[in-house]
Design brief:
The protein is α+β, with helices and mostly antiparallel strands and 301 residues long. 32% of the residues lie in helices and 16% in strands.
């Protein structure tokens, strides 16, 4: 199936239903979906805190070859690359990613999900890396992958997946052409061709792109300092230019630094008190995982 050129009428009924919905009906449907996600996420957390998978109710370190489950991607002892097809046969792209996003968000919101458009080449339809503990998972899909290309193994719309532990790759991008499920294809089509009706969000699993899309004022206000700069979600730099030739008094600057430390807020959030012109630069912090973008294979000589 071709994502960019669907069969005529493929999703006409769904699009028609979305078009005919009133704003009140749309809002009600969104609230209902969010509530469903909130209940499921609370269930996930309650089990995860006990070291148990909320889907199969087995311990997260447990690998049962007879019961394929998404928690296998947390690398329980016994899991091997050859078992991955059993996982993606049961769980679609959005399901796998939602679960891994929830896992990554247990320790810190957004930080460990690098879906930043600006840190990727822009040549892929899907490009992100998710990290938790010593594990990293990356998803990649080019325009040709989305259409389906080449031999039968890749002729259907698909994506590529990479998994690493302690920096050692367990599953390589080119090991599998992972097919999108029918639900995946429907959502991909609607979000691409009808963004006025459909937008997919990973509730309770938002990444850095969602965070950085917020206003600078909100980011500065909500940020909290950390003593471990290497794990910081954001890097905030504030430049203050005095309005008078006398500059800014050292004791005034020290007072602001002390106040920020006592209140547990960033210096940037208090810089306006110094009376100068301020410029605040906000970037992803060093704690955000590096993108693991899939590169074209080198030509054989």
């Amino acid at each position: 199936m071709n994502i960019t050129s669907q069969k005529p009428g493929q999703y006409d009924e769904i699009v028609g239903s979305l078009r005919s919905s009133t704003p009140e009906e749309t809002a009600a449907a969104n609230r209902q979906e969010f509530q469903r996600a909130a209940i499921e996420h609370a269930d996930f957390l309650a089990y995860f805190e006990r070291g148990v998978c909320y889907l199969c109710h087995a311990g997260i370190p447990v690998f049962d070859e007879a019961n394929p489950c998404v928690h296998w991607l947390l690398n329980p002892k016994g899991f091997r690359k050859r078992h991955f097809p059993e996982v993606f046969a049961r769980f679609g792209y959005y399901e796998l990613q939602a679960y891994l996003r929830w896992v990554a968000s247990v320790e810190a919101a957004c930080r460990d999900i690098n879906d930043l458009v600006g840190e990727h080449s822009g040549k892929k339809k899907i490009d992100l890396t998710i990290r938790w503990s010593k594990l990293e998972w990356s998803f990649s899909c080019s325009a040709s992958d989305m259409r389906g290309h080449g031999k039968p193994i890749g002729s259907q719309p698909h994506y590529h997946f990479q998994m690493a532990s302690n920096g050692k790759v367990i599953i390589k991008y080119n090991d599998f052409h992972v097919p999108f499920s029918e639900d995946d294809l429907r959502m991909l089509y609607l979000t691409e061709h009808h963004p006025e009706f459909a937008r997919h969000e990973f509730a309770f699993g938002n990444g850095m792109q969602e965070l950085m899309a917020q206003s600078a004022e909100r980011l500065v206000k909500g940020a909290r300092p950390t003593s471990d700069s290497d794990s910081a979600t954001l890097h905030i730099q504030t430049i203050i230019r005095a309005r008078t030739p006398n500059g800014i008094a050292g004791e005034d600057l020290r007072a602001i630094i002390d106040e920020a430390r006592q209140k547990g807020v960033t210096l940037a959030s208090l810089a306006h008190k110094l009376g100068g012109n301020t410029l605040t630069i906000i970037e992803p912090g060093p704690g955000v995982p590096s993108p693991r973008e899939r590169r074209p294979r080198g030509r054989r000589r």
